[in-house]
Amino acid sequence: MFDIHGGVHILQFLSWQLHDTDLELLCDACLTSLGFWSPACYEEFIAMLPVLPNHVEDTIFRYESLCVLAALQWAVSLHCRPQHLAIDTNNLNTVQIFDSFKASASYNSTLHVASVILIELGIDLHVWHIFGAENVVADALSPGMLPVAQFYALGLHISPFSPLQLTSGSPKK
């Protein structure tokens, strides 16, 4: 990967806090669907789970990591792309792999896609842990409880999204 991108990459911030972010997204996944939302843009996104190859383990951890990746991909598609992006999830394993960019081999493809995006576009990403009680909108989105999500955030615009599909443990569009 670094052969393609070449050069020296210097971190703009060694450490930053939530108040330093340009955009915050909140994610959640369950064993039926994925959901994330942007409080700043007042938009919600929901998707059915991607079909996994037979040899890829079907776990909530996998879906949470794919949801974080989908949120990242949406954020970089915005006209006013964030330089400091915060993504919140209630899954500590997901927080840890995006913090260290180290995981078991079957998750490396997800991290690779994220790292390419971050390096090419010069975005600082921090994935934070959030308790479910503080993430009620995304927690309602992921199992498809749209009226509950809209109760907690009146007037939200809900859109479908398509998460990356995995083939042989590698993501494809």
The N- and C-terminal alpha carbons lie at a distance of 18 Å
What fold name stands as the CATH topology?
Nucleotidyltransferase, domain 5
Provide the β-strand percentage band. Answer: 15-25%
Overall tally of domains: 1
Low-confidence stretches: 1-11
- Quickly give the CATH architecture: 2-Layer Sandwich
With strands numbered from the N-terminus, the spatial order across the biggest sheet is: 5-4-1-2-3-6
Protein name: RNase H type-1 domain-containing protein
Organism: Phanerochaete carnosa (strain HHB-10118-sp)
Describe the structure.
- It is a single chain.
- By secondary structure, this protein is α/β, with parallel strands linked by helices.
- The protein has one domain: Ribonuclease H-like superfamily/Ribonuclease H (Nucleotidyltransferase, domain 5).
- The chain is built from 6 helices and 8 strands.
- The protein has helices spanning 2-5, 60-76, 92-100, 105-121, 136-141, 146-152; strands spanning 23-29, 33-38, 43-48, 84-89, 124-129, 157-160, 165-167, 170-172.
- The strands form 2 sheets. The chain has a 6-stranded mixed beta sheet with strand order 5-4-1-2-3-6.
- Helix 2 packs parallel to helix 4.
- The longest helix is centred in the middle third of the chain and has 17 residues, at 60-76.
- The model is unreliable at 1-11 (pLDDT under 50).
